[in-house]
Amino acid sequence: MPKKPFHLAWFVSRGYGPKAWRMPWGGPNPEQWVKPDMLVDVARALERAGFDYVMIEDSSNIPYTYQNAHDTYLRLAVDSPKLDPAVLASFMIQATKNIGIITTLSTTEYPPYLLARLTNTLDHVSEGRAGWNLVTGSNDGGAQNYGLAGQFPHDQRYDMAEEFVDAVTQLWESWDADAMVIDQEREIFADPAKVHPIHYEGEYVRTRGPLAAPRSPQGRPVICQAGGSPRGRAFAAKWAETIIASAGTVEAMKSLREDIRARAIGYGRNPDSIKILFLISPLVDEFHDSAIARRDARVVDAKTHMDWHLASFSRLTGIDLSKYHLDEPLPELTSNGHRTVAKQFEGRTPRQLVSGGSSTPGVELVGTYQHVAAQMSEIIDEVGGDGFLLMQGDLTRRYVTEIADGLVPELQRLGVVRKKYEHKMLRDNLMAY
Ligand SMILES: Cc1cc2nc3c(=O)[nH]c(=O)nc-3n(C[C@H](O)[C@H](O)[C@H](O)COP(=O)(O)O)c2cc1C
């Protein structure tokens, strides 16, 4: 019996920002990172390989967590600068026909109406390929750019997001699917009886509605979520249709997936209506030894750029890691940022974090195309299904080509990923199997 295929998606880490600007293969004219061209090429390559979606990461500040200064972040372009992901999404949409484009937008930074309008517009212009990576924000510096003293407490952010997403979905659906009549003879553009104010009055959110635009092709753009804490998982199991997760072992992947599926059933949802994709960064080459050599070179690079990685980890957790000795295990950490990440740091030394965890998130997948493809297939067999979210921090066209034109054809030969899209819209492709 043929295997049930799994899904592939791409994580544009560091968002619409500079990628491998100091690395070989970074491409000519590194100052051109402000143009969408490279990332549009990435979307095209991934569409050629039948990926479900590309997700554009975002955060909207120049961090200052590490050493209480912007310096490292600016000097080495650590997780910044970033241009607006929704603008990049528009260019990707224009250049593609099938792949889903998911934009990160924060519930503590956007007013719900504006977010509903933007995502509805992206779904219209993409003919049903838009998605929203729903984040609550995690960094004090980001919150301060929006007039707040700092981030709201972790769990309260999710309480606020519950209302937010409820209001947004009501706005998305405030026009009935058949409300736009456009009958020239009767001179009716939209049927007023089919467009409804929502009068949303919550504790955190108030919005009148209806949305200023008709229902989009998917009605609800696909919601993507990455909450890893218990509160985050509860939220994701209730609202998300695709969950992106970082797990260091196959067992952790399996138990996370089982937990989410059980929670989904608790909310009366079909667990198959959530696709959980695990973050990986495979390193493939013609020869096993060359892949290993490239992996080792990455570790050496990480060790010689400790500042870069510690600044990045500090931003994620909101904890200034410069305060800790490089070779002493980290104590129990309290984070109002990415709690799950902070927990994974405890008991490891900062140096171990940098040399061990930076080059290959998730399980290590290094070797020939055939070897890595077989490994990925085995992992999904063991986990029980769904798929992977691929990323490469220092992204290059070379890396994407190796995946799209090297690794994916191997996966196709194994019969474990699609050869062509089943449908036109993102949700339909995601739910096809
Ligand atoms: C693969 C992945 C991608 C993420 N992308 C973003 C992002 O673009 N912007 C953001 O603010 N947070 C992002 N996050 C963080 C999550 O939204 C969330 O805050 C984090 O996983 C911690 O979960 P928790 O809030 O439940 O503790 C990402 C997390 C993961 C695992």
What does this structure look like?
The protein is α/β, with parallel strands linked by helices and 433 residues long. The chain has a single domain (7-292, 359-430), classed as TIM Barrel (Alpha-Beta Barrel). Helices cover 40% and strands 13% of the residues. It contains 15 helices and 14 strands. The protein has an eight-stranded parallel β-barrel, surrounded by four helices. A two-stranded antiparallel ribbon has the order 5-6. The mean pLDDT is 94. It binds flavin mononucleotide (FMN). The site of flavin mononucleotide has 23 residues, from strand 3, strand 4, strand 10 and helix 11.
Spans of 5+ residues with little confidence (pLDDT < 50)? none
* Fraction of residues in helix: 25-40%
Write the element-wise H/E pattern from the N-terminal end onward.
Answer: EHEHHEHEHHEEEEEHEHEEHHHHEHEHH
CATH superfamily: Luciferase-like domain
Look at the helices and sheets and give the structural class. Answer: alpha/beta
CATH topology descriptor: TIM Barrel
How much is the radius of gyration in Å?
A: 22 Å
| Shape summary | globular
Query: Could you report the average pLDDT, rounded to the nearest whole number?
Result: 94
| Largest sheet: spatial strand order | 1-2-3-4-9-10-11-14
Number of strands: 14
Bound molecules: flavin mononucleotide
